[in-house]
């Protein structure tokens, strides 16, 4: 980690978000299906492919959607139709635009004033420093890059020092340095006792920021817990390859003898190979083919989409 | 000025559509000055200019642009979330926005109507039009602000009310005039500055009561709808 000025002040009291059997549907479409989870202090990643229901869940947590079924509370209070929760809660939504006609300082200061903070100027200054926007704070937001706008929104969401911070795809549009800084900031906020939940559809982002993950697939909570355990499940899952060669039958026989291969199917179009170890298989295949003088015409990893990885988790 | 009013006003004047407010009042003043300078009988030009253009077009259209802009534009571009994620009772968001909308509409419309009223008849008529149009601006603003929270097409619905209900039906079906803000404004202006140039079938008590009811009723509706404001999720 670089030398980041992202030291967050420890919070006096911690907050807990509780979801019990929460569902949300739009007509016949179920966006979130029977999700139960408890989020306490620390950083939690909400991981899932696009359309999994992450944003809907975050909006319900932030009080911008009523659950169709189930209960959702922050320290025992419902977040729906309850603006008082925003004293403890900050939201950085994915789509939210910013008032492009304001400068970052005006925007964050307006947030501080709307929160009725005793010293809004000092709170705004500190929040802007926290996201490293001090140098550009007097420029109109309309002139900012996407990453700078994102950091400005984070500053506005942090200006009242909330115990709970919800962020929807916070790393979108950030360059690597800004990303690193944001990750450090989230770490620091989590270590200081805040409850931080951020959504992402990118495994590596979640891996670098949080130890705890909630994985959503098709509206359901598919996995929950320590990221390393879930990551191990993902790495060790069988990988499927489509292979075409000059002699598919001979290649199938040879592949079955290799320990990296768990199974082979032969049909008119070629071979479908299930490998237990991605690296071992891709290293072994050329050697096996060369030894038998078989020419491999096509090697395509199948089923590598994030959706399939998550689906595998559901079955695991 | 509250922070909500300040952001609302900055947003309103910072958007290009604010420029759309300027031509109509300018045309109103221009026509009045032209008629007066050409010596046309006020009985001939005042009703179409003051009522036909001023109260039937300029007032509702300006109020529509501003009223749907103070909250509707923020809902459209997503910036409303910035204000809604604050621990403010929702009336503390709606009332400042309504005040900005009604204030801007009233000033934009009242000044040209005052000039036209003075040129047509007297200072008293000018002042009568100022007061009545300010009250009308409040009622229209409450209606259009609430519309921006109950429908995704507030401008279209607002235009239907102004053009179809007030403009078309009001001319052919006299009963609809009772529910026409335009007619209430005429009744109020005529009460403050009695003149033959303004005429309506709606009585002053009805106009006063309904103006108050619409202003309060739609404001309460807007506050309630803002309490339940939802953001559609990615799967919707």
UniProtKB/TrEMBL annotation, chain A:
<dbReference type="InterPro" id="IPR027417">
    <property type="entry name" value="P-loop_NTPase"/>
</dbReference>
<dbReference type="Pfam" id="PF00005">
    <property type="entry name" value="ABC_tran"/>
</dbReference>
<keyword id="KW-0067">ATP-binding</keyword>
<keyword id="KW-0813">Transport</keyword>
<dbReference type="InterPro" id="IPR003439">
    <property type="entry name" value="ABC_transporter-like_ATP-bd"/>
</dbReference>
<keyword id="KW-0547">Nucleotide-binding</keyword>
<dbReference type="InterPro" id="IPR003593">
    <property type="entry name" value="AAA+_ATPase"/>
</dbReference>
<dbReference type="GO" id="GO:0005524">
    <property type="term" value="F:ATP binding"/>
</dbReference>
<feature type="domain" description="ABC transporter">
    <location>
        <begin position="17"/>
        <end position="243"/>
    </location>
</feature>
<protein>
    <submittedName>
        <fullName>ABC transporter</fullName>
    </submittedName>
</protein>
<comment type="similarity">
    <text>Belongs to the ABC transporter superfamily.</text>
</comment>
<dbReference type="GO" id="GO:0016887">
    <property type="term" value="F:ATP hydrolysis activity"/>
</dbReference>
TrEMBL record, chain B:
<keyword id="KW-1133">Transmembrane helix</keyword>
<dbReference type="Pfam" id="PF12730">
    <property type="entry name" value="ABC2_membrane_4"/>
</dbReference>
<feature type="transmembrane region" description="Helical">
    <location>
        <begin position="94"/>
        <end position="115"/>
    </location>
</feature>
<keyword id="KW-0812">Transmembrane</keyword>
<keyword id="KW-0472">Membrane</keyword>
<feature type="transmembrane region" description="Helical">
    <location>
        <begin position="154"/>
        <end position="173"/>
    </location>
</feature>
<feature type="transmembrane region" description="Helical">
    <location>
        <begin position="202"/>
        <end position="223"/>
    </location>
</feature>
<feature type="transmembrane region" description="Helical">
    <location>
        <begin position="127"/>
        <end position="147"/>
    </location>
</feature>
<feature type="transmembrane region" description="Helical">
    <location>
        <begin position="49"/>
        <end position="73"/>
    </location>
</feature>
<protein>
    <submittedName>
        <fullName>ABC transporter permease</fullName>
    </submittedName>
</protein>
